[in-house]
Structures are given as structure tokens and as C-alpha cells.
């Protein structure tokens, strides 16, 4: 088990979130894959998830889906935690992905959509949004490594996109409510605590 996942489990942050479904990824037939998926869905329907605010270290603001939109491609910003209109659009859960031991999907509570780098871009400054999980063209641009910045503990951490190796970043290190969230070169010019995040547990619930 890798260091990041071990730290998460030790802290109880992923308890009950990850359904074991490795067999589905190596199924010998479509029928078996369907059966596995149905079994996983059934297990998850009775499962309580841990929901977190994801808080930017530099500003104390929360990762937020703008306007609490449930639409595919809605923008992701930083917003005042619990501010006017804020609620489940600032709540996220972490979901393990079979075959990717070091990475998670980050799923919005209000919409069920995934934190996504637009157009699978590998560029610095590419926009981050919410999108259908595993939708057309989506794969590694929805998978994030939680890279700890302190030995022996998960938090604080950087979210590093699998497809690009770039970090979840508040643009221009802005302190403003509604500042845009992008992917940026990890530790690049002008970056620092605006690429550093913490989890804050807010609920344990099915949805």
C-alpha cells in the first residue's frame, strides 16, 4: 500500500468510500464487468460517504462549484466557506479507482460530478471544472494524487493531476471570493500556498 493511501486510511479519511472493484478492471467478458458494476452500485447505495470541504491554505477559502451549478463543465472556484449560497457545492468526497493505487477522483456532493481539467489539457493555466465522471474524453484528467508536504502525515497536501503532473492552483494566488481554480506548474513562479490544500470533514452521509 502506498504512503499516501496509508496515511489516508490511518486518519480514517477514506473509510467506507472505496468499494473494491479490481476484478471489474480485468474482467474476461462484458457480462462479468456489468455484474461487477451492479454489485458495486448496490454496495454504494447503502454506504455512508465522508464529505469534506477542501480548503486553500493561502486564503482559507473552499473549493466550490460556481453558482452551485449541477451542469457539466460548470466552473470550479474558491469561495467563502459556508458563504451565501454555499452548501453541498463545497462538499467533496474522495473515490479510489481500480488500477490507480495513488490517485482518487474528487466528486462534488451536490452534482455527483468529478473535478476535471478541461479538455484534458496539459498546459499551465488550464481551467478546472466539474464534469461527468468518466465522460467522453475523461480519464487521467479526473485523477488526482494527494501529495503530502509533511513526512508522516497527509495534511497539508497538493492535488497533482495524473495526466499533466500539474497542481490544483488558485489563479494568481488570489485571496478573493470566486477566484478561478486552474492547474499550474507545481512550485512554479508565483506559486506557493495557493497550491496547498487541507481536508475538513463536514458530513458522513449517503449523499
From TrEMBL:
The keyword Protein transport does not apply. Residues 1-30 form the signal peptide. Residues 48-200 form the Ricin B lectin domain. Keywords: Signal. It holds the Pfam family RicinB_lectin_2. Transmembrane segments: none annotated. This is Ricin B lectin domain-containing protein. It comes from Nonomuraea soli.
Amino acid at each position: 500500500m502506498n504512503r499516501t493511501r496509508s496515511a489516508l486510511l490511518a486518519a480514517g479519511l477514506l473509510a467506507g468510500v472505496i468499494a473494491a472493484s479490481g476484478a471489474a478492471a480485468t474482467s474476461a467478458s462484458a457480462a462479468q464487468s456489468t455484474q461487477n458494476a451492479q454489485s458495486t452500485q448496490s454496495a454504494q447505495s447503502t454506504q455512508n460517504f465522508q464529505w469534506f470541504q477542501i480548503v486553500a491554505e493561502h486564503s482559507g477559502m473552499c473549493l466550490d462549484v460556481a453558482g452551485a451549478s449541477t451542469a457539466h463543465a460548470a466552473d470550479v472556484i474558491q469561495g467563502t466557506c459556508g458563504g451565501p449560497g454555499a452548501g453541498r457545492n463545497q462538499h467533496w468526497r474522495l473515490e479510489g479507482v481500480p488500477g490507480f493505487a495513488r490517485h482518487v477522483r474528487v466528486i462534488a456532493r451536490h452534482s455527483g460530478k468529478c473535478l476535471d481539467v478541461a479538455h484534458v489539457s496539459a498546459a499551465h493555466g488550464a481551467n478546472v471544472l466539474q464534469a461527468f465522471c468518466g465522460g467522453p474524453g475523461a480519464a487521467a484528467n479526473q485523477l488526482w494524487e494527494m501529495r503530502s508536504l509533511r513526512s508522516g502525515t497527509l495534511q497539508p497536501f497538493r492535488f497533482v493531476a495524473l495526466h499533466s503532473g500539474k497542481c490544483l492552483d488558485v489563479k494568481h494566488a488570489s485571496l478573493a471570493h470566486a477566484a478561478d481554480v486552474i492547474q499550474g506548474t507545481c512550485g512554479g513562479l508565483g506559486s506557493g500556498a495557493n497550491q496547498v490544500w487541507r481536508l475538513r470533514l463536514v458530513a458522513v452521509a449517503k449523499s
